[in-house]
């Protein structure tokens, strides 16, 4: 009798696993898999609220209040729906859906803080302040160089195509267009202009970068922000700790980090904090390790030319 029950349990467990496998899901032992009403299923993150539940169109308008002004350089390009559509592709992997609602809001503020700072045309005396001008650009206006590394065999420059900065967290250089294009399944090497023609793809490329480690065995910006990442001894001796500061390290390395308290670094931080305030979370919830002024880069620029 006991053997029968055990066998039955075994069969039940096996058929549940088979059903999950048939549905194309990967399950880790002990992880709850959820299937809620929103466009998300088969991931434990789908048990949580979606970004569109706690970040509404009116809030996007407040964060990027001047993006359609006459002075803006990408008027009528960026919009809330493009962000939400792109974000939905990454929510099953934990973007904006890791932890509770406050962590979700903080992650959205952090990601958009990078976007706002990198696409800003704000300056200190600008109406609304220098952080009120995010999403002013969607591409670099006067490229100072061609951003082509001819020696790259995997992603060679295409004749007549230019690889200047484009997108929500701008991408530069042929190899980076190649890498990100592969990541979002778009031929960005031949068609980098997609990132200045299609706001959904521009956000998708930026969120892909946020969610993806630059190198194997390294954390992504998402990982260092939401607490998925535990620093090693090497990390702590390089002053790298979880928090917003380390997201700048992942994305920009020593172009921003390890240079002391610079205007460039503080400009990014001030966008993140401004957005926390506007979203009602408040800058007092910025989290530990906000800056990266004494962090050693995960990937020193002397060793590679990524991004
Ligand atoms: C932007 O790209 C997405 C994904 O390829 C596509 O579904 C959408 O129609 C495009 N939008 C525009 C305005 O071309
Ligand atoms: C730690 O840093 C040292 C010196 O830079 C390096 O040789 C070693 O590979 C690093 N270890 C890990 C686990 O990254």
From TrEMBL:
<keyword id="KW-1015">Disulfide bond</keyword>
<feature type="disulfide bond">
    <location>
        <begin position="257"/>
        <end position="292"/>
    </location>
</feature>
<keyword id="KW-0378">Hydrolase</keyword>
<keyword id="KW-0119">Carbohydrate metabolism</keyword>
<feature type="disulfide bond">
    <location>
        <begin position="148"/>
        <end position="157"/>
    </location>
</feature>
<keyword id="KW-0326">Glycosidase</keyword>
<dbReference type="GO" id="GO:0006032">
    <property type="term" value="P:chitin catabolic process"/>
</dbReference>
<dbReference type="InterPro" id="IPR016283">
    <property type="entry name" value="Glyco_hydro_19"/>
</dbReference>
<dbReference type="GO" id="GO:0016998">
    <property type="term" value="P:cell wall macromolecule catabolic process"/>
</dbReference>
<protein>
    <recommendedName>
        <fullName>chitinase</fullName>
        <ecNumber>3.2.1.14</ecNumber>
    </recommendedName>
</protein>
<feature type="signal peptide">
    <location>
        <begin position="1"/>
        <end position="18"/>
    </location>
</feature>
<dbReference type="InterPro" id="IPR023346">
    <property type="entry name" value="Lysozyme-like_dom_sf"/>
</dbReference>
<keyword id="KW-0624">Polysaccharide degradation</keyword>
<dbReference type="GO" id="GO:0008843">
    <property type="term" value="F:endochitinase activity"/>
</dbReference>
<dbReference type="InterPro" id="IPR000726">
    <property type="entry name" value="Glyco_hydro_19_cat"/>
</dbReference>
<dbReference type="GO" id="GO:0000272">
    <property type="term" value="P:polysaccharide catabolic process"/>
</dbReference>
<keyword id="KW-0732">Signal</keyword>
<dbReference type="Pfam" id="PF00182">
    <property type="entry name" value="Glyco_hydro_19"/>
</dbReference>
<feature type="domain" description="Glycoside hydrolase family 19 catalytic">
    <location>
        <begin position="59"/>
        <end position="292"/>
    </location>
</feature>
């Amino acid at each position: 009798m006991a053997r029968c029950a055990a066998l039955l349990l075994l069969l039940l467990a096996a058929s549940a696993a088979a059903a999950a496998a048939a549905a194309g899901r990967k399950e880790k032992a002990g992880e709850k898999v959820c299937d809620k009403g929103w466009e998300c299923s088969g991931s434990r993150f789908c048990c949580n609220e979606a970004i569109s539940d706690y970040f509404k169109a009116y809030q996007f308008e407040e964060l990027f209040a001047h993006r359609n002004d006459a002075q803006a350089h990408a008027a009528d390009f960026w919009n809330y729906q493009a962000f939400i559509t792109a974000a939905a592709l990454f929510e099953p992997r934990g973007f904006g859906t890791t932890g509770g609602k406050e962590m979700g809001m903080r992650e959205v503020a952090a990601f958009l803080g990078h976007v706002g700072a990198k696409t800003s045309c704000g300056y200190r005396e600008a109406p609304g302040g220098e952080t009120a001008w995010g999403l002013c650009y969607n591409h670099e206006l006067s490229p100072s160089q061609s951003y082509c590394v001819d020696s790259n065999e995997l992603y060679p420059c295409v004749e007549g195509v230019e690889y200047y900065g484009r997108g929500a967290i701008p991408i530069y250089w042929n190899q980076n267009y190649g890498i990100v294009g592969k990541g979002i399944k778009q031929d960005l090497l031949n068609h980098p202009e997609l990132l200045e023609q299609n706001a959904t793809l521009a956000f998708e490329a930026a969120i892909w970068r946020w969610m993806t480690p630059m190198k194997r065995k390294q954390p992504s910006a998402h990982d260092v922000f939401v607490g998925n990442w535990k620093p090693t001894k090497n990390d702590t001796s390089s002053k790298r700790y979880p928090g917003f500061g380390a997201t700048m390290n992942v994305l920009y390395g020593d172009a921003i980090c390890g240079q002391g308290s610079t205007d460039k670094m503080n400009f990014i931080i001030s966008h993140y904090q401004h957005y926390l305030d506007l979203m009602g979370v408040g800058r007092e919830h910025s989290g530990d390790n906000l800056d990266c002024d004494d962090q050693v880069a995960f990937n020193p620029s002397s060793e590679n030319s990524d991004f």
